[in-house]
Amino acid sequence: MTLEPVITAMRTDLESRLRVDLLEDGYLEPSYDSYCFANVPETVRRELGVVDGTTRALPEDVLADVDNSYERVFVVLVDGFGLELWKRHREDHPLLERIEERGTVTPLTSIYPSETAAALTTFHTGRLPTSHGVLGWEVYDPADDASYEAFSTTVTAGDESTDYELQDVFVGDPIYPALEAAGVDCRHVVPFAETYDGATCHSYGTVDGPGHGLEGLEEAVEEAFTAAADPAYLFAYLPQVDTVAHAYGTTSDPYREAVRETFDALDRALSGLGDTAREDTLVLLTADHGHVDTDPDRNVDLERFDDVMAALERHGTGEPVRYAGSPRNVHLHLREPEESRDDIRETLEDALEAQVITREEALECGLFGRGEQSQTFRRRLGDLVVCHRELSVWYGSDRPKLELVGMHGGLHPDEMLVPFAAVDLEAVC
């Protein structure tokens, strides 16, 4: 669906139209063809003069209030900081206020599922989930007879001998080697010790310990800017807000503190750059998804549904295939889908306030995107996909996930709508 643009600093008009055109029964669908997070990679490439042509870019009006061309694009991705959270906290932080005053903030939809593993794989490859095949934090692939975490590749069930590197988990290549070949210097400021092929890693935080601190962020940003040769694509990943939202929810004091600390650190990093680094640089600030505060006391344990558990496919160990997708995007792989699917769907629809979508319906409506469908995607797509309106739905044998408060992955507007802010670096410092 293509929407006509109307431009203001915070584009509330567009947000309203996205809600009107894409919201149905409380569930907001991805706008894959226009204002969608999936279209950020090609937008960056277009701005740097490297047009891929095989993927979609955002409508040009998202950059209407900035210069026509830049030698450097700096994308800052604040994990989990959806549009509703931006609006809630924009008056609490000077950086957000300056961005709204001096740039443009365009609402986008996330992809489905609205979660980090799928969305960041889209961000780093330019491919939709139908192509790259990452459909949630927990990847279940019948070809491996294993469930494993998408980013850590830690096996959580099934064949424990499964041993993957990160780039073995998805189909396709990162966008960075092609950018590098086109003469674009790609640099990633991340709280990890390594990053995707084709990009230089500038680490910050406690990369070898638990959690993702902000220590060293300013130095890493300065180091990346100083080392970069024009034209350059710089990227910073900030997961701290998302981590705290999971544990405490988005209305908690720890969450408000995490937002303040994150944007204070980012503000210092941007303001600390020298005049030369600031010149000819476009800053794009966005998020991969938002959050819904669930209720751990009411979150749904699928293991209390005996008929559901009996119908699940089995690993070679004889254990049911539980872990596929995430608590807001559950993929049920069934042993005999033609015989049990309708009954299981009816059971869950009667018991839960949730959408229970068949794989055929998901394919027909393009829930995970349209176009190329990889064999990996088709293997990993569940026979049923369960998306609750506002709660988590998962397995009691993985109790910690049911106890998380802030969650995402589904189609609630608060997790589906994200900001895309564009501002000249010199203007915001």
From TrEMBL:
Q: Does the keyword Hydrolase apply?
A: yes
Q: Which domain of life is it from?
A: Archaea
What's in the keyword line of the UniProt record?
Hydrolase
Q: What EC number is given for this enzyme?
A: 3.1.4.1, 3.6.1.9
The UniProt entry, under SUPFAM superfamilies, shows: Alkaline phosphatase-like
The terms under GO molecular function for this entry are: nucleoside triphosphate diphosphatase activity; phosphodiesterase I activity
Query: This chain belongs to which protein, by name?
Result: Alkaline phosphodiesterase I /Nucleotide pyrophosphatase
Q: What is the organism lineage in this UniProt record?
A: Archaea, Methanobacteriati, Methanobacteriota, Stenosarchaea group, Halobacteria
